[in-house]
Amino acid sequence: MALFEARHLHKRFGRQVVLEDISLSIARGELHGIMGPNGAGKTTCFNVLTGRYRPDRGQVTFDGEDITGLSPRAVARRGISRSFQIMNLFDEYAAIDNVVIALPAVRVRGWSMWRDLARHGAAYDEAAAILQRVGLAGKEQVPSRSLSYGDRRALEIGVALAAKPKLLFLDEPTAGLGAEGTARLADLVASLKRELTIVIIEHDMHFLFGLADRVSVVHWGQVIAEGTPSALRANPWVQRSSLGGLAA
Amino acid sequence: MPHSPPTAPVVTAPMLGLLAVLASAPLWLRAVGLYQYLAIEIVIWMTFALAHNLLLGHGGMPSFGHGAYFGVGAYAFGLLQQRAGAELLGGLAGAILCAALAGAVVAAFISHRRGIYYALLTIAFGQVMWFIAIKWHTVTGGEDGLLKIARPPLRLGGFEWSLVSNDAFYYFALGMFAAVVLFLWRLVHSPWGRVLRAIKQNEMRAAFVGYNVWLYKWSAFVLSAALSGLAGALFAMAQNSAYPNVMSLHNSGFVVMMVLIGGGLVSFWGPVIGAAVFILARDLLGAYTETWLLWYGLLFMAMVLFQPEGVAGAWRAWRQRRRTRAAMHGAARHVANNGGA
Prior knowledge:
- Chain A is an alpha/beta fold.
- Chain A is built from 11 helices and 10 strands.
- Chain A folds into 2 domains: 2-79 and 165-247, Rossmann fold; 92-162, no CATH class.
- A 6-stranded mixed beta sheet of chain A has the order 6-7-8-3-9-10, with helices on both faces.
- In chain A, α7 (179-192) links the parallel β7 (167-171) and β8.
- Chain A is globular, with a radius of gyration of 18 Å.
- Chain B has helices at residues 13-23, 25-28, 36-58, 67-84, 88-110, 115-135, 137-140, 166-189, 191-201, 203-208, 213-239, 249-262, 270-288, 292-306, 310-339; strands at residues 154-156, 159-161.
- Chain B contains 15 helices and 2 strands.
- Chain B is globular.
- Chain A binds chain B through residues 50, 71-73, 76-77, 81-82, 84, 88-93, 96-97, 101-102, 104, 106-107, 109-121, 123-125, 127-128, 140, 159, 162-163, and chain B through 2-8, 186-187, 189-195, 197-198, 201-202, 204-213, 216.
């Protein structure tokens, strides 16, 4: 059974239809890619899937439960994490504090108004382990606004991982990264593969085709093709499009 | 290597220093040309400014109508005393509760907002309460306010202290201030305080890691209003009255000016510094000129333009520079000593 399923999602802003009819099915443990040209509705699609926007029509199920139209908070608590295309961090906080705040163990203590958070040593150790995982060991105490661009991208993923998600959404994780940063990120995502289910929106076809089990091509607010990277390389639309040139 | 930051001590050196200075104030106030009542006002405004800064500095919520909750506390204390026979602690508890309640209602309408919209709504609600205070004659006494509010004695375990004299009441107000300082210090270092600070930095991220942003903002407002109500009740005792002016827009503006001039955005102690500077400026400048607020306003503008992080920010920057210079001297000496070898 699919871990995550979206059926016939439809979303419009005013008179502009952004999602025409999106259906996606993501199996447990799969790494699923979403690609498409600019303005195809990929990010809106993500925002609908993670609760930022409510779809006008259609249904989203996760782990057998209908989560259509739930708030971001409710979606997050069910085990779905996400990163953002435009980076979203707690800028004043040190890298480690960004992760600590995102830990479920800290979240359930969030209403404690007396005990010093610094006394929860276990939370900081757990956060440090996550930072090491995403390649930020030694930068725990650096304020996140002072981190390099690539490190901020890695921290985004660290914050998303802190929630121990079953499903991780990454919105254009390579945006703005150079070749070296992209390679580093590919290693990180490859190391997470199979451990949790991952959905990635991406422009960089080399990156995506090298990692994904299956890829959905979104255009005009619809899924126009779907399959394994090798099958998609043979797809006439993908070949015709400018994207195809990169994929070859 | 432990990864957790050092825990915040329950009592810190600045806390003890500040309390020592304030506690000894009655001994030296007159010698420097000040008077006891002024110290009472300073301590009350410090309490109010700290309460306000929980929202502005720690939570990033610009409340520009906070005089309303100060006023609700003042009126509630007076009314409970005059209509329900409440004594000291009952009156204070009632004032805190009423202010918290008023805050809870207002926060329910504004906690989904941010920035300028948030600020405008707080002003609007503040004005509504000020208007009620003026117009609801039968309860609030209209423009005259509530007069003859007494300072009831403090009764604890069979002992009784009169608070009628300014000296005695000063120590009581100082005790309340110390309690608020200890509570807020714990609060900002608690998980709740750290989450609130995270929400200030990025509401959307906080929601996407699973926090109920609305409820945190709401509860911060309620707490801040409750402590403002305590300060208001103390003010009613200090003035022996409660009147609409305490709820007015300019009173709400004063507390914002205190917090910003002191440096509440960067320091826990900013509001405390700011309240002292403001009340002293009012008194000292006020002795020379009736237009002291004009000069103070100009000072405020200069501060916002050239030193937006306030007195506490300037102090911090100065210490930072000194430390850097000392480190550079040290390094230079190190090079001088070892470089030639």
